[in-house]
Each structure stands twice: as structure tokens, then as C-alpha cells.
Amino acid sequence: MFKVRKAVFPVAGLGTRFLPATKTVPKEMLPIVDRPLIQYAVDEAIEAGCDTLVFVTNRYKHAVADYFDKAYELEQKLEKSGKTELLAMIRDVLPADVRAVFVTQAEALGLGHAVMCAEPVVGNEPFAVLLPDDLIWNNRLGSTGRGALGQMVDIAHRDRSSVIAVQDVPREQTGSYGIVDVNGVTDNPADIRGMVEKPHPEVAPSTRAVVGRYVLSPRIFELLHQTRPGKGGEIQLTDAIAALLGEERVQAYEFEGRRFDCGSRVGLVEATIQFALDHDDLAGPVRAYLEQALAEPRR
Length: 299
Ligand code: G1P
Prior knowledge:
Mean pLDDT: 92
Distance between the termini: 59 Å
Order of helices and strands: EEEHEHHHEHHEEHEEEEEHHEEHH
Bound molecules: 1-O-phosphono-alpha-D-glucopyranose
């Protein structure tokens, strides 16, 4: 059975692009409207069928663990004052049948290393990796009724293969992504023939960029152990997947949904606007404000 129950969230990054806010608030806790960034990825994993969430954190990220913990005092207060809607909202952060496990990555040695830290919890079964920076919006689920990871899990299950989310990017941006080579095939999903981390536009094998969603066979752990530091001196997940290609089927999938790069400031702002426009109570005032702001002469 290629059943994906476990989802890994590498959240040990320093978030330097959001300094000074990230001096004390982890990047994953920055809000998009009223929910922290991490909640969107968590909801996507749960919708995809995952019931065990593995957070790979560092020693500065207590806020992430606190957020998923039970808030006794707050719950008691809300219960006493009859604020049932708010109570449900904070309890819904994690459904009762989903468990959160925290493992630490003592040293920032790269994404591949972060995924390796989850091995004791994941064990010998296929699993998902979600990079919360990549926020994927699909207007409360696409035509299949599945979020991006859910769509990938369905393909992985059907084809018994690993599946990597990809998106076409302008050629000048290949240096910011893992890039897959599908030998010019236009099928979706398509079998991956090669994969390279952040290639220069001139040598990139294509413009199909990996975005932060992966469904991986557990064989990846063995390969990660053998992976030497690559781009930037870090242990790259891309390099281990490139090795996996020689042994197992790995497919690239262009998901349905719009991705916001919330690892960048502009992406965070765009996501905030998009999600605000999606809230029934905010859409009107936010649209009115945007129209007014855009009508003002540029400074
Ligand atoms: C990581 C991966 C890269 C992938 C990207 C997606 O890079 O190493 O292959 O394309 O996430 O967001 P990072 O953005 O963490 O440097």
C-alpha cells in the first residue's frame, strides 16, 4: 500500500528575509490574515489524509510547538464566558485524531538534512514533505475537491511512485529552484529523468521548478545518508531525489492551485491580499481600500 500518513514540515530556517520581525517570531508564525503561515500547510496535509505531522524545528522555535499545544487557560476563559465560536477556532488548530511530533535539527545543514532528521518518526513508509513558505491557494479546493498535496497523494497512490510538485517559472529564475528534466514530455504528471538544484538559467535543463510539496518513497532516507554537501555546501533534498531516479519512478506534477512564495516579502503581501479577498467579511472593505489606494497618484 502506498498510503501517505505522515507529513514532514521543515521549519528550522532562520527567516532572515523577515528580520527584524523574525528576531522573536518564527517565519512560520507570521500571519496571513488571521492564521499563521504554518496552519495553511498543516490543513493541506490533513486534507490530503495525513494524521501524523512531523515538525523539524530548531531550539529557537518554541512558538511553533506552543501553537499546536493545548492552550488550557485560554480555553477555560473562553468556555466560561460562552465564547464557543472562538473556542472551536483555537481547538481546530489540530483535529483530535491528528498528532504532532517535534524533532530538532541541531545544525542548519540543508533541506535534505532536515528531512533526514524526521527519519526516526517516519520509518519505512512513503511520506510527504511540505515547505510552509510555499503557500498554495486553490479557492478552498480545486475541481477535484483536493488541495495540492491531496492531488499528489492520489497520483502517488495510483501509480505507486514518488511525486514532486512543479511549476513553470521564467528562465531567469531557475537559479532559485530545484529544476526537473522530463525530456521535453508535456504529460502531466510526467516521469522525471533528471533533477538539479538551482541551476544557472543558461544550463537549466528546463523551466519546470520544484515547489515545496513532495511525496517520497522511504528509500530517500538511505540516499540522503549517502548525499554529500551540494549547492551552498548544504545537503540537498534535490540531490537525493536525483539519485532516487536511478532506482524508482519519480513523477513531476503540475498541481491545480496558485502558489504564493511566502519566503519573500512580496509573496507574503500578495497572499495576504488574496486570502483577505477570500474572507466573506473582509472582501468588501479590502477591495474598496485597494481600489482607493490604486486610484491615488503614485509617489
Ligand atoms: C528549496 C529546495 C528547492 C525548491 C524550493 C521550493 O529551496 O531546495 O529545490 O525548488 O525549496 O520553494 P529554498 O527555497 O529553501 O532555498
